[in-house]
Design a protein that fits this description.
about 450 residues, alpha/beta, 2 domains, 4-stranded mixed sheet, 13 strands
Length: about 450
């Protein structure tokens, strides 16, 4: 039997992304004023997809999104309501979303559609017989607008169940341009250069990195980028499948490398204890507030960081710039994630929403709001609000089917997607004590063996 997370897909568009992002960093990444829509605007061209009339129908859509990300997605749902006459309610979900949905389904009240943030969650939904296959209208949009790789990600055993509405490049480091300038630091391209820059920044009085240690998923992303670059794609795939153990020497090397950054308390905003108390949104906003003395000069995470930067006075492309995750081994890594929309009820409304989410119409609404990248190749690049996000999106589309997917999102949720447990908790403990590499490896392997059942 296929275990949750046993479908292994990968994301690797490092060459295109690195060239594009470095070019953006060099030129400042700013959009021309006439190009850039007003922040928060949703003006879009006329509809390109026909939707049925659903007057009087009520739908619920569940996702783990919060804050600005949730707010932006609800604008997409409002447009769906306007076009169909349906009423759509957003239902905030908790991690792990499979557990959340299980309780809803057991209570006889599943949402009509759920946005699942892990490949393993999609497989679980199919295995539990919760998910409905994608209908012909949505499938037609997928065939017209998506590469084979993204369609395969939304399929289980050859049947299409999901629509990848949102993608993410999770191999970016965003930096405060003023802090870098004040310290005389340039964007690093290697891990050694990153450590040197961190030392210079910290010596100048600004801690180098803001780490969202309170959210364990960010720590899995740190590990995956170091591991992919240092150990290489073959080992990455093996570890993702638990074909090699977390006690493998390659994991020891990656944790030791990561410890070079995490082990320097002066490198981290608030030290290790401060990092462990910092949630992801704050990790971003504190990097881009405080004038010449922000809490940190850099923050690591995906293109969606722009959503949180928008909650500050900083402007992406001038105050907030970005560079690719530095190469630990031969080249810079690129790890991707994504959110897949799945129908949980066999209703006309659920299928209509999947059709809408598979169209460029829906994606262009959220693209205009920033902090969002779509794998939909029909999305107009002009929809993105600045050159940085436009470049990231173009690189994603140009990559076609050559990609590597977030390792923890491929794992069973008990290991790779549960707050306070599994990989999330083990890496939080490692952040608190980066010298205990062997202890971290032992804990990771014990939790992985239990979750994978081997």
């Amino acid at each position: 039997m296929r275990r949750p997370g046993s479908r292994r897909t990968t994301f690797s568009w490092a060459a295109a992304a690195t060239a594009g992002v470095l070019a953006l960093t060099a030129c400042g990444g700013g959009a021309d004023k006439e190009d850039e829509p007003a922040r928060g605007g949703t003006t879009a061209p006329g509809p390109t997809v026909e939707l049925p009339k659903l007057t009087g129908e009520k739908l619920e859509v569940a996702a783990v999104w919060t804050g600005a990300e949730q707010e932006n997605f609800t604008k997409v749902l409002k447009e769906f309501e306007k076009r169909t006459g349906a009423t759509v309610t957003f239902v905030p979900a908790q991690d792990p979303i499979v557990t959340f949905l299980g309780s809803k389904i057991a209570g006889g009240a599943p949402p009509d559609v759920a946005l699942l943030p892990q490949v393993g969650a999609l497989v679980s939904a199919v295995q539990n017989k919760w998910a409905q296959p994608v209908g012909p209208e949505a499938k037609a949009q997928l065939d017209a607008n998506y590469s084979a790789g993204w369609k395969t990600l939304g399929a289980v055993e050859g049947t299409q169940y999901g629509v990848y509405y949102k993608a993410a490049n999770k191999s970016l480091i965003w930096y405060n341009a003023k802090a870098f300038e004040a310290a005389g630091v340039k964007p690093p391209t290697t891990w050694k250069e990153l450590l040197t820059a961190a030392d210079t920044l910290s010596a100048s009085g600004t801690p180098a990195v803001s780490v969202a240690g309170a959210d364990g998923w960010t720590l899995t992303d740190w590990f995956e980028n170091v591991y992919l670059s240092q150990a290489g794609p073959e080992k990455y795939d093996q570890l993702a499948k638990h074909q090699i153990k977390w006690t493998d020497d390659s994991v020891k090397q990656a944790l030791t490398t990561l410890g070079e950054l995490f082990g320097r308390k002066d490198f981290l905003a608030g030290g290790a204890s401060g990092a462990l108390a910092t949630e992801f949104p704050k990790s971003v906003t504190q990097t881009f507030t405080g004038g010449d003395r922000p809490a940190a000069a850099m923050v690591f995470e995906g293109d969606f960081v722009a959503v949180n930067i928008a909650q500050t006075e900083a402007k992406v492309g001038t105050d907030a710039l970005v560079f690719p995750f530095p190469a630990v081994g031969a080249k810079s890594p690129v790890v991707s994630g994504g959110d897949v929309a799945v129908a949980l009820k066999p209703s006309k409304g659920a299928q209509a929403l999947l059709t809408f989410l598979a169209s460029p119409d829906a994606a262009e609404i959220q693209a205009r709001l920033g902090g969002f990248v779509s794998p939909n190749k029909a999305v107009d690049p002009a929809a993105y609000p600045n050159d940085i996000q436009r470049g990231i999106a173009k690189a994603l589309i140009a990559a076609g089917d050559d990609f590597r997917f977030d390792m923890s999102d491929q794992a069973p949720a008990a290991f790779g997607g549960t707050p306070g447990a599994g990989e999330w908790k083990a890496l939080q403990d490692f952040l608190a004590n980066p010298s205990d590499v062997a202890g971290a490896q032992a804990k990771l392997e014990a939790d992985a063996a239990k979750a994978y059942g081997n």
